Amino acid sequence: MAETQQEISSVLTETRVFPPPQEFSQRAHLKSMEDYQRLWDEAARNPDKYWGERAREELYWKEPFQTVLDWKPPHARWFVEGRTNLAYNCLDRHLATRRDKPAILFEGEPGDRRTLTYGQLAVEVNRLANGLKSLGVKKGDRVGIYLPMVPEAAVAMLACARIGAVHSVVFGGFSTEALQERMKDAGAKVVLTADGGWRKGAVVPLLKNVEAALKNMPSVEKVVVARRTGDALALTDSRMVAWDVLVNGQSDTCEPEWVESEHPLFILYTSGSTGKPKGVLHTTAGYAVVASLTTRWVFDLREDDVYWCTADVGWVTGHSYVVYGPLMNGATTVIYEGAPTHPGPDRFWDIIERYKATILYTAPTAIRAFMRLGDEYPRKKNLSSLRLLGSVGEPINPEAWMWYRDVIGQGRCPVVDTWWQTETGGIMISPLPGATPTKPGSATLPLPGIHAEILDRAGNPVPKGQGGLLFVTRPWPSMLRTVYGDPDRYVRTYFSELPGKYFTGDGARTDMDGYFWLMGRVDDVVNVAGHRLGTAEVESALVAHKLVSEAAVVGRPDDLKGTALVAFVTLKQGNAPSPELKKELAQHVSKEIGAIARPDEIRFAEALPKTRSGKIMRRLLRDVAAGKQASGDTTTLEDLNVLAALQQNDE
Ligand code: ATP
Ligand code: MG
């Protein structure tokens, strides 16, 4: 039946539930499910009132708004008449009470350290803002940011926001081509970069990449270069200017550009797990309200927290939860430049111990990598400062969730699995740690004001327990406004599945408690004998095996079955692949979730192909499984060798 074909079969069973620890709830911003429900009901009954109040609470408004929402599907304008400035909200607002509080605790990969207080950060931002103005950057101009994870990255973003320039951060690990493509698409006038950045003990040649890209970025008039490597600066092009020379002598104050709520704040190209990167455009006020609110609620932020989100500013997580969210809340945010396992497997735990980090927000790929390395590294460090753990980026396999909770959180810290996207600007589905009982592998419930629903392609609600397509059925303040330079793609990608309803591209189901379980991207769903299986659940069963570190499951066309399931598996350190282990793993999956999900083929791999943000790229594995040359865009792939190795294995 067409109807059942549209459902995604769910095979995972998970019954563990962890209520919030009492001491945590007592001190939390939201203390109970009653708190959550009350806010949820308020927001659903009167969204304009709810979001209007939130917007007035979260932001300083130079000019108030009258209209909360102007919704002409699929186009939304929020807080229409208001004017504000995001740099003002992140900095000036705090100077009276937090001038000497650390805003940024920075640690470079080589071990160098810097603290920037709110007072110092404001000065850096204002000087650069004035410097950019002196280069002719005006409100609405696009500025590219191609920097390592150093404080300058945050300074650059805030300086743009201060003068109403639109920033477009390109991850420092991206190549010349990727940079070029994005800067051309954005029409950037200025690019901010550094002579290099440290990664795994070596220098990433950022300036060299920019130099090569300059040949093909006609819009770029100036390149501002920060010093990072300690080498003499080689400014090889008349368009290049040293950062310190530019800001030297600039005034410490810079009047903020009071922009209208819908003024564009940034363009961010998505990581491209599924194809050509899209320039997701976010505007100022709506984005800011959600970034600020969710940082405080989801991470239960308190004045004395030392908050560490390990994401790079090249991703949306770095935008919302390294820079804007924490700084709007006056928090102390940790920035670490380098690789998680450099110089040793305990670098993360070392940082947590040294800075006494209280909140850690990282990705399942990192968690699985640490699991693979073994428990002894975190166990040797003092992680007792931690009080909350977060996860984002991919579905977190229940076994990885449990490890995170038990080994890193020592059973004490609530785990928040946060579902959201570049396009949503901020967290959408997540536990509130003082209120929501958590279940390993579930992002739990939508935040108040967020209408996440699981529907079939005809728009009918899918019954609890069955998989379907995840939609957001009402607008929210931090939704993307368009795909930069391609308004049709905005409509086509997000609003053509069901008119007026935002399609996330993800498959999900709800359980009997209404909790959301993300099942993977709809493009990755595998059809086995009439059952559509989400990849995440089959992978989670594999990861639950004690020898397995990571798994990716894809479909391969099969004459007999239509589709055969192929699982790519990496093992924990010290374990060797064998035909017996293949059999054992296939049996393990059958036993855990049923014969339907039993892989037809298991392939051991040293590593899985991932985006530079650490997500498994299943579309490439589909080609490998089918014995084809991997096709499509591979510029966002972290390591081409991984793909080559897999293809070779095949022969
Ligand atoms: P592209 O859209 O270019 O393919 P991308 O989707 O990987 O790239 P992001 O916006 O960074 O880029 O990622 C959002 C996606 O990541 C979600 O749609 C979802 O598939 C996945 N994701 C993020 N957080 C979670 C989570 N907590 N649980 C499950 N999946 C998640
Ligand atoms: Mg996406």
Automatic annotation (TrEMBL):
Keywords: Acetylation, ATP-binding, Ligase, Magnesium, Metal-binding, Nucleotide-binding. This is Acetyl-coenzyme A synthetase. Its cofactor is Mg(2+). It comes from Myxococcus fulvus. The keyword Flavoprotein does not apply. Residues 36-90 form the Acetyl-coenzyme A synthetase N-terminal domain. InterPro entries: Ac_CoA_lig, ACAS_N, AMP-bd_C, AMP-bd_C_sf, AMP-binding_CS, AMP-dep_synth/lig_dom, ANL_N_sf. It catalyses: acetate + ATP + CoA = acetyl-CoA + AMP + diphosphate. PROSITE patterns: AMP_BINDING (PS00455). Catalyzes the conversion of acetate into acetyl-CoA (AcCoA), an essential intermediate at the junction of anabolic and catabolic pathways. AcsA undergoes a two-step reaction. In the first half reaction, AcsA combines acetate with ATP to form acetyl-adenylate (AcAMP) intermediate. In the second half reaction, it can then transfer the acetyl group from AcAMP to the sulfhydryl group of CoA, forming the product AcCoA. Transmembrane segments: none annotated. NCBIfam families: Ac_CoA_lig_AcsA, PRK00174.1. Acetylated. Deacetylation by the SIR2-homolog deacetylase activates the enzyme. Residues 92-476 form the AMP-dependent synthetase/ligase domain. Belongs to the ATP-dependent AMP-binding enzyme family. PANTHER family: ACETYL-COENZYME A SYNTHETASE, ACETYL-COENZYME A SYNTHETASE 1.
